[in-house]
Structures are given as structure tokens and as C-alpha cells.
Amino acid sequence: MATILIVNGPNLNLLGVREPHIYGTETLESISNNCKELAKTLGHEIEFFQSNAEAEIIERLHQHFSTPVDYIIINPAAFTHSSVAIRDAISATNVPFIEVHLSNVHQREPFRQHSYFSDLATGVICGLGSQGYLFAIRYIDQALKQN
């Protein structure tokens, strides 16, 4: 059994009401429930975390040193394009991670097309809505079985 930490950045708490034409109508709570259900079926545990504050995300990543996790899925949201501090924190954990975005950032404004995380990530999933989280969990399950 593996522990997978899913970290969500700013404004994702507004999913379901914020720009549904871009982010869909599913709530973050629903995404969390679906991730936990899939992980349980596969024999893993999910810890789901969301914060609008950069410092809180960094602190949660630092908790890995006292409470280790096996894999991380991160949707840094707007911090994708601006947070060297979160990049440094996730890099310091030395835990493999998958970067997930609900929208296809490559079809959006030019500033959204740069990520401070992609070059460190095992993989990047974008544009597939909430299914991206589930695809990441399935990938992690397979990757852990191979090790």
C-alpha cells in the first residue's frame, strides 16, 4: 500500500462555480472523493490537500520529512507559473510527482504555458479535466508495482 499526496493550489476550492467553461462543473470535494475511491480500490491511500497560500503548500510538502509519502500529484494552479519556492520544496522531498492541470494550459494565455514544475515531474497531464487526477493515480499504481 502506498500513500499518495495530492496537492492543489489556489482557487481550486472554487471548482464547480469558477469559470465552468474552462474548469468544468465538478467540485474539488467530488474530485477528492473519486481519487480516494480509486486509490482504495487499487490498495493505496490518498491524502488530499488544497490551499490558497503558497506557504501552506510549502509546509505541507515539508511534512514529508516527518510523515513520508510515496508519490505526489500536484496541481499548482496559478503557482505553476510563479512559484520557485514550491518548486524548491517539492524538489527537496525527492519524491516522484505528476503535475496535473484541469485545462489545457497550452491553449491558454502565453503566461500559463510556462511551468516551474514540468521539468522535474515524472509526467504532466493537462486538459483532461478531473480525469487527469485519476489517470495519474492509475499510472502511479503501475509504476509502484514495477518497483
What topology does this entry show?
Blueprint lengths: L2 E6 L11 H4 L4 H15 L2 E6 L3 H9 L8 E5 L8 H10 L3 E5 L21 E4 L4 H16 L1
Parallel strand pairs: 1-2, 1-3, 3-4, 4-5
Helix pairs in contact: 2-5, 3-4
Structural commentary:
The protein has about 150 residues and is of the alpha/beta class. It has one domain (about 10-145): Dehydroquinase, class II (Rossmann fold, 3-Layer(aba) Sandwich), CATH 3.40.50.9100. Helix content is about 35%, strand content about 20%. It contains five helices and five strands, in the order βααβαβαββα. The protein has helices at about 20-25, 30-40, 55-60, 85-95, 130-145; strands at about 5-10, 45-50, 70-75, 95-100, 125. The protein has a five-stranded parallel sheet with strand order 2-1-3-4-5, covered by helices on one side. Helix 4 links the parallel strand 3 (about 70-75) and strand 4. The longest helix has 16 residues, at about 130-145. The model has no long low-confidence stretch (mean pLDDT about 95).
> What is the CATH third-level topology name?
Rossmann fold
The helix count comes to 5
How does the major sheet shape up?
Answer: 5 strands, parallel
Q: Please estimate the helix content.
A: 25-40%
**What share of residues are in beta strands?**
15-25%
The figure for the number of domains is 1
Strand order of the largest sheet: 2-1-3-4-5
| CATH class value | Alpha Beta
What low-confidence regions span 5 or more consecutive residues with pLDDT below 50? none
Taken in chain order, the helices and strands follow as: EHHEHEHEEH
Distance between the termini: 13 Å
CATH superfamily: Dehydroquinase, class II
Which word captures the global form?
Answer: globular
> Would you report the number of β strands?
5
The name of the CATH architecture is 3-Layer(aba) Sandwich
Radius of gyration over all CA atoms, rounded: 14 Å
Roughly what is the average pLDDT, rounded to an integer?
A: 93
The chain-level structural class is alpha/beta
